[in-house]
Structures are given as structure tokens and as C-alpha cells.
TrEMBL record:
Lineage, opening ranks: Eukaryota, Fungi, Dikarya, Ascomycota, Pezizomycotina
Endpoints of the signal sequence: 1-26
Protein name, entry field: DUF4185 domain-containing protein
Sequence ranges assigned to domain DUF4185 in this UniProt record: 201-355
Keyword vocabulary terms for this entry: Signal
Domain of life of the native organism: Eukaryota
InterPro entries from the UniProt entry: DUF4185
Annotated organism of origin: Apiospora kogelbergensis
């Protein structure tokens, strides 16, 4: 078991220790980010974890990063950022097809040189360029009859910073998930400076309700290191995902959902703190929602559970500790692959390890 030491400020180290101990740094008042209830995994089950190996593409030699999964048209795909050897740069956002082998994916939208093309296209009319990033999380299916999906993303101006979080329509064109429309002025809905970056932490189509949920980090205008770590959520009915006016925002357990966009950013209105990017799934075997995540500032893979998609979330259970690749390797971004075992008895999880995706399988007893 090995961890990596990073030259981070003491306040961040202290925050990580608090997070692992189940505490946060609330500055008084109601703190809805505190763990609530029991973790179903630790309370009712034991588990074993198996390391499976590296996830690679069967038609590309590119390195991989992130790889959040989502379903469309009866098939599962993931969204990696990519950087092929010898290519000094990175395709900031791409799409690949998952297979029955957790270690093999099939890259889609390849160009003539065998490199993947940008999944969420940049738009020069909006001042975007090829070095812009579109970091986001899961592809969610919103209409199975028309094979229509949605993807949440965060527009990253690279040198100029984050612009805002948005939603795009995804349709199957010649069998390949393709972004056909980006919504909002300048291609996004939620300004990153003044509103949460909805979808940048996680996005989830709840199979047990009509809703799509999205979680995002605090507005960038919040500079206090404690408050900047809070995570907020919104939801919308899947059939209305492309209508901004139909979204609801979580104002905390005491006030619940409101159509009024959130304007108060505190521990009361937040749902998580310092979780890092991850993925939410419903687990049929455990009969609960499971949030897969890593870190921060550790190499541990954590699972936490909740009775509802909006929480409240339990404390974490550590299911694995990764060994960083390289001297300064970092591990992050927990990803779930529930399609590999629909019963939920086991859950395949992948995570990024220094631009490599590693895979483990957790089996519940």
C-alpha cells in the first residue's frame, strides 16, 4: 500500500484528514455535507476487491484519462480525454465504446491519422479554440425511443480559465454518439464565476425516477478554500433536459428543491464537500445509490451510499488503494461500469492513474 506525497499547503492536508474522518470545515450553522445514516456496504455486507489491470483501446495506442461512462441506444460508452504517444497535446474530449471486457474499449470518431476527434466541438464564433477543454461527466440517455442523450460539460478556456457549465444534445448518427446541439448563450447555461459548475462533478440518469441529476463545484468567485470545496446539485426531468427553465435546484434538506436558481452557497445548501469527480449509480444488489470517488489528496477509492439520488450520503468505505504510476503520479476520477454486472453483486470501477486508466472489481458478499 503506497501513497504519494504532494507539496500542498497544510490547510489542504488538514482538510483531507477531516474528510477521511467524516468531518468537514463548516464555519457554523447547518452542515448538510456531513455523513448521514449508515453506509450499506460496511453495515450490511463484506466485500473483496480485485485489481484487473489497465484499460486500453483495441484500435488505438493513445493514453487515456477520466473515461466517465454512459448509456445510449442500448450500448455503453465512455468519454476520455486522450493524448497519443508522440502527439504533443491532447484531444480534450472524446467518445469510446465500452465492451464486455472491462479492460478493452473501442475508440470512435477516428480521423485519417487514427486519432480521435473532439466529441464536444469548439465554436470559433463563441471565441473558443482548439485548446479549449470541455471537461464533463456521464452521458445520460433522455429518450430511448429516439436514441437521444445529453451530456453535461464545463467550458475551460485553458489560459483564460473556466467559462461556464452547459448541456449538449447527443444523437446516434451512423451508430456513433454525436453532439448535434449545444445550448445556451456562448454554448453554456451556468456561468462558472457566479453559479455552481453543474455536471462537472457527476451526472446521473436515475433509473428509478423521471429525473437526471447533476452535481457541480462551487462558483469560481468563491475564494475561501473551505467554501470553494462545497458541491451543489440540480435536477430536471429527462424529457425536459434541454429546457433550462425546467431545472430545479437543491436548497438543502430543510428547503428542498426549488425552481429558483441557487444563490446561497454554504454548507446548508451543499450536498458534498471536497469529493472530487466521480459517478453515481443505482445498485440493485445493495438496494441503494452508490457514489464512486477518489481522494482528494489520497490514492484511495471510496464508495458511499444513499437511499435517494439527492442524498443524504453516508460516510465513505475505502475499497482500494492505488499505487501511483511515476514519481509524481496522481490518481483521481472514480468511474462505475454497472453494465458489466446488472445484478449489482459486483461493481467494476476504473480511475485515472497518471494518464492511464486502471480497473478494479469490487464484489459484495
Amino acid at each position: 500500500m503506497q501513497t504519494t506525497t504532494f507539496p500542498v499547503p497544510f490547510c489542504q492536508i488538514f482538510a483531507a484528514l477531516l474528510l477521511q474522518s467524516g468531518l468537514t470545515c463548516s464555519q457554523g450553522g447547518i452542515d448538510n455535507t456531513q455523513p448521514a445514516g449508515v453506509n450499506v456496504i460496511s453495515h450490511d455486507h463484506t466485500f473483496t476487491t480485485e485489481y484487473l489491470g489497465l484499460q486500453l483501446a483495441d484500435n488505438s495506442a493513445s493514453h487515456r484519462d477520466l473515461g466517465f461512462t454512459g448509456q445510449l441506444g442500448g450500448k455503453w460508452g465512455n468519454r476520455p480525454g486522450r493524448g497519443p504517444p508522440g502527439f504533443h497535446g491532447m484531444v480534450r474530449d472524446a467518445i469510446s465504446l465500452c465492451t464486455d471486457d472491462p479492460l478493452i474499449v473501442h475508440d470512435l470518431q477516428l480521423d485519417a491519422k487514427g486519432r480521435q476527434q473532439q466529441f464536444i466541438p469548439f465554436n470559433e464564433d463563441w471565441g473558443e479554440a482548439s485548446d479549449f477543454g470541455f471537461g464533463g461527466t456521464s452521458l445520460v440517455e433522455v429518450d430511448s425511443e429516439t436514441n437521444t442523450g445529453a451530456v453535461f460539460y464545463l467550458v475551460n478556456g485553458n489560459k483564460t480559465g473556466y467559462r461556464g457549465a452547459g448541456v449538449a444534445k447527443v444523437q446516434l448518427l451512423d451508430g456513433t454518439p454525436t453532439v448535434t446541439h449545444r445550448f445556451g448563450y456562448q454554448g453554456y447555461w451556468w456561468n462558472a464565476n457566479s453559479t455552481p459548475r453543474y455536471g462537472d462533478v457527476a451526472a446521473f440518469r436515475d433509473p428509478r425516477s423521471e429525473y437526471v441529476y447533476a452535481w457541480g463545484g462551487a462558483p469560481m468567485d468563491i475564494k475561501n478554500w473551505i467554501n470553494s470545496g462545497y458541491i451543489y446539485q440540480c435536477r430536471v426531468k429527462a424529457a425536459e433536459v434541454f429546457e433550462l427553465s425546467r431545472y430545479e435546484y437543491w436548497w438543502g434538506r430543510q428547503k428542498g428543491w426549488k425552481s429558483e436558481p441557487l444563490t446561497t452557497f454554504t454548507a446548508e445548501t451543499a450536498v458534498l464537500w471536497m469529493s472530487g469527480q466521480g459517478q453515481v449509480v443505482w445498485n440493485e444488489y445493495l438496494k441503494c445509490y452508490v457514489f464512486v470517488r477518489l481522494g482528494p489528496w489520497t490514492n484511495h477509492v471510496f464508495l458511499r451510499t444513499a437511499p435517494l439520488a439527492e442524498g443524504p450520503w453516508s460516510g465513505d468505505v475505502k475499497v482500494f488503494t492505488a499505487t501511483p504510476i511515476g514519481q509524481d503520479g496522481m490518481t483521481y476520477a472514480g468511474v462505475a461500469h454497472p453494465y458489466l454486472d446488472p445484478s449489482g453483486r459486483s461493481l467494476v470501477i476504473s480511475y485515472t492513474n497518471n494518464n492511464n486508466i486502471e480497473v478494479i472489481r469490487v464484489t459484495f458478499d
